[in-house]
């Protein structure tokens, strides 16, 4: 029997993914449900319970010692509650308590999805071997997490490293968070596309107005598309440099849909970083694309559970 297994949950507005993960980061079993994001909170929890029930039907479940959850945020690990922006039925929802009850009292570790992806990249991905790292998800929003002194640093509520809401433009556009000129307001996929459209870029015959379509146009040399990605790159560089100056990270890892744009993003980002990260102790800061892909949330949730619970298998029969 595996004695270093944990159950992992990756909860977002589109899907609830679950897995059994071993101590080497290998996913041994998967389960998934669509998130009923517009339904009442307990209906969403029913989908989470369905994922757990499917995992618990496996004989492997007897070796599971804890559950790790990476959830869309905001999360509050200090109270075990979540209030994801894209799941309106969950507001201060007691997710840890409900998952603990659904699994017969297993220990449960809750972190935000940005912190989960950071844990995965540090354990198995682009930040492996780095003791001080910032890992970012640049997608519909911009999230992130920190590794400091070789350990994940989620902070008291599980939100430390949330770089998307550092202000990098004092007189910039109002952000939905209530601040102004945030990294997310400039560098997220929808905002890259919005700025390109406002600047006169137009989609092709397929009508695709996503950031991926803007990236394709930028690769083809469309000046407005190039400018929109350069603006996003400068915002990211300013946020990364501020973080590095504050806590002395030596690598910034960028994942998410926008991170897949490749040189269209990374070339201007590295150039801008040289302008912003100027002090001697941040000049060797490197930037790298994420490596973990779509499993990052699950692997990172598992990492959090493995590092916070002692290695002792539960002896309960399968079933939740």
UniProtKB/TrEMBL annotation:
Put simply, this protein is called: ROK family protein
- Mention any Pfam family matching this sequence: ROK
Coiled-coil stretches: none
Q: Which domain of life is it from?
A: Bacteria
Q: Give the record's family classification.
A: Belongs to the ROK (NagC/XylR) family.
InterPro entries, sorted: ATPase_NBD, ROK, ROK_cs
Q: Where is the signal peptide?
A: none
